[in-house]
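Researcher: Let's run the pair from yesterday's discussion. Sequence first, then C-alpha cells, for each.
Model: Starting with the first of the pair.
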Amino acid sequence: MKPIELFRLVWINLSQNKFKVIMTSVGIVVGTATIMLVIAIGTGGKLEVAEQFKNLNAGAIDISYERSSASGRGGMGQMGFPMGRSGQGQGAPMGGMPPMGQGMPDFGAIFPGRGNESSRMNREKIILSREEMEELSVFVPGLSDTTISYSTNASVEGGNLEESTNLTVAGVLSNYMAISNLSMQIGDFLSQENEEGKEKICILGSSVAKTIFGSALDAYDEIVYIDARPYVVRGVFEEMGTVASGINPDNAIFIPYNTGIKYLVGEEVSPTITVIAKEVGEVEQVISHIKNVLADIYPNAEFTISDAGSKMEAASASNDTLTLLLISMAVIVFIVGGIGIMNVLFVSVKERTNEIGILKALGCSKKDILLEFLLEASCTSLVGALLGLLLALAVTPVVESMSVRVELSLFGALLSLVFGVLTGSIFGFYPAYKASRLVPVVALNQE
C-alpha cells in the first residue's frame, strides 16, 4: 500500500470517529498539559530561587546569637557559663568548670590588645559587636571581608506619608553594599566617615523611596524622620525583588551602624556578623574555624551560624523535589492515558476484523495493517497532545494566580508533545501487531 493511500485510510477512520478520538485521548491531554506545566513551574522555581538569593554572596556566612539558645542547658548564666549549683556559693560551677580566675584561659594572650576579657565574660548577655567581628577577621583564615549589621522597626515620617509608618531600619557598615551585591540607583552609599561621625543620613530601598516620595529622583537629598529625628536621604538602591531571608533591601532604610546604636537601638541590639569566605568550596572549614574562635571567647555559648550556599542548596533541593513529584504524577497520567488508547484499539481491532480481512484479501501486507493501526494510535495521541498544550496555556493564568511562578517555553511544549505522541505509539503497537497477525480467512468469517 502506498504511503498516501495509508494516510488517507487513517484519516477516513479518524474523521468518522471524532468523538471517539477525543475521548480516547483524554489521558494524553491531561498528561501533556501536566508535563508542560511541570517544566514551566520547575523553570519558574529555579528563576525564583536565583532572584531570591541574587543579593547573597555564595561564600557569605552569618553569625548571630539568640538568647533562647542558652536555654535548656542547666541554666546558662553569664556569657554562656553554667550557673553554679545552689548551696555552692562561690564554688566551682556545674560540669567541673573552675571558678572565675582559677584555670580560666588567658584571653588577653589569645586575643592581644583586647584588655581585660573578664569584664566581657561577666556581662549578663552575649551581645556580638565589632570587636568580635575584628577578632574573626584576624583569627579565622580564608576570609575576604567581614561586616556587622542589625535591623529594627522604627516610625518613619516625611514625604508623601500622611501619618507615621513603621518600617525596617538597618544599621550597616560602609562595606555592606559590596558584600550584599547591591547597587545604587542614585546617590552614593554610606562611607566610613559617616559611620565615625554618627551622621544622620540614610539610604532608601527602591520600594520605600516610591512609597515615601514617589520616585528615587524625588527622594534624593530629601528629609525623612526616623523616630522623630531628621535624616538626609543620600541615595536609593536599585530594585532587588524578593529575598528568601534576612533584610529585604527594597523595603528597608539603611543608616550608619553607630548612628543607629546612638539614636535608635542603644547597646542592647542583637546584630549579625557576616563574613565572606574567599573560596566557596572552603565554607565548611571556615565555619569550623569560626566555631573554634567563638568557643574560645564564649565557652558553652551556642551561636547560630548559617551560610548562603546551604540556603541556596536547600531552596534548590526543595524546588527539585517538587518538580520530581509533579513529573511522577505526569508519568502516571501518561501511563493511564496509554492504557486507555490500548484498550480502545483492541476494541477497534475486534470491531474491524472483517475490514482487516478484506484489506488482506486485496493484497495488503502485515506491515501495511501494522502501520495503519499504529498511525491511528499516533494520530490519536497527537490530537490529545495538541489539546493538552492548549489546556496548559489555559490553566497557566489560574496557576499564576496562586502565587506560583510559571515560565512557559518552546522546549517544554515540544518535549510534552513528543512525550504524548510516543505514549500513544508505544501503547498502540501491540494492538496494531495483533491486527496485522490476523488470518484473512478467519477475519472474513468473523461475525
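Model: Moving on to the second of the pair.
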Amino acid sequence: MPSRQKSPGKLRPLQLAAVIFLTVSGGPYGLESLFSYVGNHGALLLLLLTPLLWDVPTILTVLELNSLMPVTGGYYQWVKRALGIRWAFFEGWWTWLYTFCDLAIYPVLFVTYASFFIPEIAAYKIPVCLLIIWSSALLNIIGIVPVGKTSVALSILVLVPFFFVFGLAFFHPGAPVPTPSIKGIGYSPLSLGLYTVMWNFIGWDNATTYAGEVARPIRSYVVSVCLAFLITITIYLLAALAVNRTGIDPASIDIDKGGFPVLGSFIGGRWLGILVAAGGMASALGLYSAVLLSVSRVPQVMADDQLLPARLCARHPRFQTPYISIIASSVVVSILVFFTFADLVLMDIILYGAGLSLEFLALLILRSREPNLNRPFKIPLPIGGLILLFLLPLGIYTIALSGAVWSAKKIGLPLFLSLGMLFSAALVWRLIRWLKPHLANTHTGLHGER
C-alpha cells in the first residue's frame, strides 16, 4: 500500500506554502492605504511591530492546535472539542462571514490594478468582479491540487515585479531610509493603519480547514507556515523601504489613486508600473482562489453537525469537492463586491478578531483540561505564559477597534453592519436550537493523520 506522503490528490509542502502565502498575503498589494494613514515613517514601524504582536501568537496557536487535530474543518473542530457545539457554531458562523468580506476585497483590487493600464475597465467593475468570482468557483470545484498548482504560479507572478521595484529603489538617488516613527500621527489614522496591517497578515487559521487534504499535515504545516511568514514579512518590509527610499509622496500611492503601480512608474517608468499592476491582478486572483478553498470546507463540517442544511456538504460526483458550499459562498460574495475596499477591510477585521479570540480560548482550555494529549508541536509556555502571549494580539485588536469607533462618522455603516453580523450568530443559534432541540453541547474526538 502506498504511503500517505505519495497519495494522489494531496497538497505537498511547497504547494501548501504557496496557498498559505496567497491566503494570508498575496504580496504587498493592499498595503498602499497604510502609507496615506500613517506616512512612510509610521508604515515602517507598524510593519515591524504588528507581526510580532498580532501574528506570532496567532501562528503559534494555529500550529499547536493543528498538530493536536489536523482535520478538515480546522478551527471549527478545535473550538468544538474545547467549548462545545454552540461556540463551534459561533466560530464557524463568524469566520464564514468574515471570509465573505475578505473574498469580496480581491475582485475589487483586481479591477483597481487592471484600470492602471486599462482605465476603461473601471466602468465595468461589477461584471469583471463577477467573472473572477465564478471562474474561481469553477477552479475550486475542480479540486484542491489544481488550486495548489495555480497558487505556485501566481505566487511567482506576484513576487517578480517587486524584485525589480526593490532593485531599482535601492539604487534610486532618493531620500535615505528614515527612522521608523509614529510621532504626530492621530489616534484614528493610527487605528486605521493598524487595521490595514492586520488585514494584510490574517488567515493563518484559514489554511487549516483542509488539513485532511494535505500530505503529512503536521510537518507540512509547520514548514509551510514558517516559509510563508518569512516571505510575507520580508516582502512587506522591502516594499516599505522602497517607498521610503524613493521619497515618494505617500498620498500618491493610495489604493484609490493607483496603488503600487504608481510607485513602479515613479521608480522605473511606465513598463514597471504595468508589470506591478499585472502582479496585483495575479495577487487578487490567487488570494481569491486560496481563501475560497478554505471557507468552502467550513460549511461542510457544520452541515455534518446539522448546524447548516445538509445539502451544503454535498460532494461533486466527479471531483469530490464541496461544490454546493463553493457556489453558496460565491453568491454571497457577488453581493458584497458593491462595498468599498476600506469598508470591507474594517468588517473583515472585526469579525476575524471575534473568531480568533475563541481559538485562543480553545487552546487554553485544551491545555488545562487535557494536558497529556500528544502535541507534536507545542508552544513552550505554561498556561500563565499563554495568557500573557494572547494579550498581545487582543490588545492590538482593541486599539484598532476603539479607533474605528472613535472615527465612526466616516465608517459608521460598515462598523455597525459588522457588529450586526457578530450578533447574528446568537440569533441563528436560537433558531437552530428551536428547529433541532436534540442538539447537545457535545465535543468532537481527536482524529486525523499524525
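Researcher: Give me one sentence on the second I can quote.
Model: The radius of gyration is 21 Å.
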